[in-house]
Amino acid sequence: MTYSIVARDGEQWGVAVQSKFLAVGSVVPWAEPHVGAVATQAYANPRHGPRGLELLAQGLDAEQVVARLVAEDEGRDERQIGIVDAAGGSAAWTGPACPKWAGHRTGAGYAAQGNILAGRDTVDALAETFEGSAARPLAERLLDCLAAAQAAGGDRRGQQSASLLVVERDGGYAKLSDSLVDLRVDDHERPIEELRRLHALHERLFRETPRDRWLPLDRELAEEVRARLSRLGYSSLEEWAGVANLEERVDGEDAIDPVVLAALREEQP
């Protein structure tokens, strides 16, 4: 009842999924840096997620893990699994009893799969969009894959929820988390569009602007920043940024991230 893609790009592993199902992100996507990524769906067996990662961590490749999961599961005929391993090897399984249309497609660094789809075009759109977007960040590639799959027909029952998970070792919040992106839309008429909106907000709050693109806080700009902070009732940029959830983009008093400056200028009064 779902379409998804699991993928590896450099030091990142991720899963993107959409379904006419409440909170699909709570069931389908699993990923661990330098281990791999797993999607478990159709009449999903949620234990395939942690079990798949466990087997990958033991050194099995994607094909071996899919074979092991299928062999261990009496409900295999109704399951669908997609896996990418640490090296980018991929494998998938679509049980013969999965609701039609159901199928998968694998390639270098990805596995795309879906069931109860409008047709094969949905999975082809996932795969071809991923293959044609190698120069872009993984999270953006996966969002584009979902959008292309939906445009190609998607889940034939409609839309309801979507999820985007991307992991990278120490790539998440404060460099103390492996969750680079972990966003879910649990119930929405256009979940992929809403997921894009959340991702844009996530990028604004947590992505880093290269230091050489920061703006020097010269006399004129520093005075503007002080005046705006004063009108808002703050004594320092750091204090305001903590309230605005932009603290990860503030570092010192000699320069300002342009994203922070734009957000400050948007504040009222």
Q: Care to describe what's here?
A:
- The protein has two domains: 2-206, Aminohydrolase, N-terminal nucleophile (Ntn) domain (Glutamine Phosphoribosylpyrophosphate, subunit 1, domain 1), CATH 3.60.20; 211-266.
- The chain is an alpha+beta fold.
- Helix 1 packs across helix 2, helix 3 runs antiparallel to helix 4 (138-151) and helix 4 (138-151) packs antiparallel against helix 5 (191-206).
- The longest helix is centred in the C-terminal third of the chain and has 16 residues, at 191-206.
- A hairpin with a 2-residue loop joins strand 7 (103-107) and strand 8 (110-114).
- The N and C termini lie far apart (48 Å).
- Helices cover 35% and strands 25% of the residues.
- The model has no long low-confidence stretch (mean pLDDT 96).
- It has a six-stranded antiparallel sheet with strand order 7-8-1-2-9-10, covered by helices on one side.
List the helices and strands and how they pair.
Layout: E1 2-9, E2 12-19, E3 29-32, E4 36-42, H1 48-57, H2 62-72, E5 79-85, E6 90-94, E7 103-107, E8 110-114, H3 120-131, H4 138-151, E9 161-167, E10 179-185, H5 191-206, E11 215-216, H6 219-232, H7 237-243, E12 255-256, H8 258-266
